[in-house]
Amino acid sequence: MITAVETNTVLDIAAIRNDFPILNRKVKGHPLVYLDNAATSQKPQVVIDALVGYYTELNANVHRGIHTLAEEATAAFEATRDALQQFINARHREEIIYTKGTTEGINLVAYTWGRSNLNEGDEVIISGMEHHSNIVPWQIVCEERKAVLKVIPVTEAGELDMEAFYQLLSEKTKIVSIVHVSNALGTINPVKEIIDAAHQKGAVVLVDGAQSSLHLDIDVQELDCDFFALSAHKMLGPTGAGALYGKKQLLEAMPVFNGGGEMIKEVRFEKTTYNELPYKFEAGTPNIADFVAFKPAIEYINTLGKKNMRVHEDALLRYATGKIKEIDGIRIIGEAKQKASVLSFVIDGVHPQDVGILLDNKGIAVRTGHHCAEPLMNRFCIPGTIRASFAVYNTMEEIDQLAAGLKKAISLLK
Ligand code: 7TS
Predict the structure, then answer these.
(1) pLDDT in tens, 89-144
(2) What is the tens place of the pLDDT at every residue in 97-107?
(3) By three-state DSSP, how is residue 175 classified?
(4) Do 329 and 293 reside in the same domain of the chain?
(5) Atom 16 of ligand 1 has which residue's CA nearest to it?
(6) What is the mean pLDDT of residues 322-339?
(7) Which of 230, 231, 368, 387 to probe ligand 1 with, by most ligand atoms within 8 A of CB?
(8) Most exposed of 38, 305, 352, 399 (fewest Cβ within 10 Å)?
(9) What is the CATH number of the domain that holds 71?
(10) CA 8 to CA 308: how far, in whole Å?
(11) Alpha carbon distance 279, 260 (integer Å)
């Protein structure tokens, strides 16, 4: 029997909860229990204030005007790039390309680096636990360039089969594109080992950091990854903003992505020349407000400290895992040794969606389904899972409510 667990965190979780106004709302008459953080995190008041403040005080287009608003908006917009550079420890600020999110970052690499570097017979390695956004762009570009997509299998425990990876890796491998933390299993993958091995064969590596950038310390220079993609909305920030890190030399050699304003130096009908990094990849008016409000999210994470957050999140995961295992008929999917903040499970004879609906009736938000990782679900021969994913503002009491809600749902559905 699992009883209350000490989180040993130095953080004041009750005070942190007060920073997130949405946590005060009720759903179907019950206090919201938000356990869908892997889909998107909630936003602290400082981020909401920055969004409102931008439209109240600053709104102007960036990089184009000499009037005061344009200058202030540009400064606020660009300040986030500096914050991001520090956040992931990139060597140069121009290595931070603004994107709409992880999906766009991966597509950017596939369509620019991929189209100019992949040739017939070359190989791209991904894994069996990728989100669709790290599968489909590679399928598209492999088909176009007649390259071959190879997939690292996933073990029963939900870890990468590293022996199989070493067998797949060869001089034919041109890129390995790999998820850092699986959104469906919570597995933390050994990306440093993968990067070092890929580099020895002359391949580059893209790390999908959608799920890791809030929970793990990210140092792109130490990792030595060639690309790293992240989304603001999974890091307490707004939707519609994200970043792609790329090593400067690679980004400089890559062809442009979208064409339009901002990404050009000079446009002539005969020939157009392109802007320097990072603007060469940033065509059109961006989500200015969202990038401005991304900075306070990064600062908020820095103030709490990722290590402190991890202590609490790991305690939540341990406690939830123990609680769920006590319930008859529940099977956890993904029991890797290294996990972060995600607990996926199935219940014998019960469809995940039915459980999700019953939990929602109690105000408990979980995600059910394939989590945009259909091949992974097929690997485990299941239609989907019930996924509870945790963030720093979640509590042990919320996990107790989840466990009670699950017991009730099972008694109704079985
Ligand atoms: N990669 C991983 C590992 C993800 O978890 C997600 C989103 C993406 C890429 C795409 O990120 P986006 O911000 O561009 O959409 N994952 C989820 C999820 O688990 N539930 O909803 C979205």
Answers:
(1) 999 999 999 999 999 999 999 999 999 999 999 999 999 999 999 999 999 999 99
(2) 999 999 999 99
(3) strand
(4) no
(5) 39
(6) 97
(7) 231
(8) 305
(9) 3.40.640.10
(10) 9
(11) 11
Single out the residue of 178, 194, 106, 115 nearest to residue 147, CA to CA: 115
The DSSP call for residue 113 is I
189 Cα–ligand 1 center, Å: 16
Q: For strands 330-332 and 148-152, give the pairing.
A: unpaired
Q: What percent of the chain has pLDDT over 70?
A: 98
Do 89 and 77 touch, CB atoms closer than 8 A?
no
Question: Does the C-beta of 103 come closer than 6 Å to ligand 1?
Answer: yes
Token readout for 277 is 């990094």
CA separation for the pair 119, 121 (Å, rounded) = 6
> How far from the centroid of its chain's Cα atoms is residue 104's Cα?
12
Q: Which domain holds residue 185?
A: 49-302
Closest residue by CA, ligand 1 atom 20: 39
pLDDT (0 to 100) of residue 7: 67
* Secondary structure (DSSP) of 75-124: HHHHHHHHHHHHHHT-S-GGGEEEESSHHHHHHHHIIIIIHHH--TT-EE
Mean pLDDT of 251-271: 96
Determine whether the shortest distance from the Cβ of 85 to ligand 1 is under 6 A: no
Which CATH number covers residue 375? Answer: 3.90.1150.10
Q: Is residue 2 over pLDDT 60?
A: no
